[in-house]
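Provenance and format

Records in this collection were gathered into a single text stream. Each protein contributes a sequence line and a token line. The two records reproduced below are adjacent in the stream.
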Amino acid sequence: MKLAVLRGGKSAEREVSLRSGANVAKALRARGHDVTEVDLDGNTWDFLRDGGFDCVFNALHGRLGEDGTVQGMLELLGVPYTGSGVLASALCMDKSRAGRLMEGVGLNVPEFEELEAKEGVAAGVVERLVAKFTLPLVVKPVREGSTIGLTIARDEDAVASGLVLAGRYDRRVLVQRLAVGTEITVGVLATPDLKVLPTLEIVSENPVYDYDAKYTAGRSHHIIPARIPEAARHNAADAAARAFSELGCSGMARVDMIVDAAGTPWVLEVNTVPGLTELSLLPDAARADGIEFDELCERLIEHAVGRHHHHVGPAAI
């Protein structure tokens, strides 16, 4: 097939997206496809409209790629594309609204509050947040990924500086109770049958599994299956499948969680365009399930084309 791989873009995750896209393009070329790598810019609309592509593989992370905007463009162009549709993409990128929806269907989500980022921090806000959530607590932008703009605040000064930092990335800021336990992620595929991949435990060499730990070789380690009780693995897999389905996801997603000492999985977020670099989590989990990376990419393309041609959707718009 003649394929376009969307990569790069304008989000804070641009560099990771470039690596994901290059990795995907290499895999699809190995499968015999004619692949063009496309760095999202103002000319992308015309290029995809006139390019005669059979499908677009979306490897854009973050805003203007993972949040429903590009999905809407591709819907208007009538071009098949991988991953979730407009609504699911927008919902999952919005940690606040996704969290409320998941709470509403009975999933465990750490308690949180959304704030409007303003110049400076108003008097009494930090003290109120500390009293509500206790220290340490988490501060992060509502609509960013890869832990960009995230702070685990261990004192009041860190809460204040965390609010300012998160506000640089989004006018909407999330303050959340810190879930303590084993950090895991669960990949979900639906191409089209839903399949939950093995639980993957993340061990970071850094104090926090941050951007550096995620994308620098040797800074983190993946353990499959996660070192949690079998019942907890089952509960985590069930929570991932429910989150994926309730949010209307399609194709693939990665559900990040903390499993506490009682074995309860606390859902942190759902990533509809998870990292696809040589160090990323979803490809490792798929490989542990016997799905090599080139086959994973092929499945996603075939699903996107089949979904488009059979009018099953379009893609949960």
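Adjacent record:
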Amino acid sequence: MFADAKSYPDTMTLEEARALFFARSGLGSDGGYSARWVRIEMKPFPVYFPNTASRVKSAKLHDLHHLALEYKTDWPGEVEIAGWEIASGCGPHPWAWLLNLGAFAVGMALFPRRLYHAFVRGRRAANLYREGFPETELRTKTVGWLRGRLRIDRADPEVSPRDKIAFAWWCFIAVSYHAAWLIFGLIVFLKGLTLLIPR
């Protein structure tokens, strides 16, 4: 997977790589971790939500996954990282599950091949969500070390029937998740209308 020139070489420390990742992605010097609100570019209007401590904890691990895998922060890249993280498991990180399911659904519609490839890759990988990663080790650990820990420093896996079944299952979960939110929003909207209409 990394035969071509890497944007984040194996020898680079994670601290150096993350700073470069922030700069290339336009996330600010601290990656937006100190911001009060998170902005997601959606059409036709952006979506905002509170930048909670739980979300920041997940984002710090998510960003390390991004740079190790060399997935960008545009929509195709977010779709890929969502597929990879869901397949490898988001552990006790509810923000990661929620946001990844959203990007997963976008990928089903717009970038299905890239989503599928990243998902299969994630099925053979580890990730940082289960054990975490101390900020104090950013200066001493390298990108190559992280790729080894995540088990992504090897050839892409062959697709198995179990991979296909797992992908189909998560497609069903993603569709059901969004359908539930759509129904909930419709109920709230109709309830609001009944309150506004005089009897």
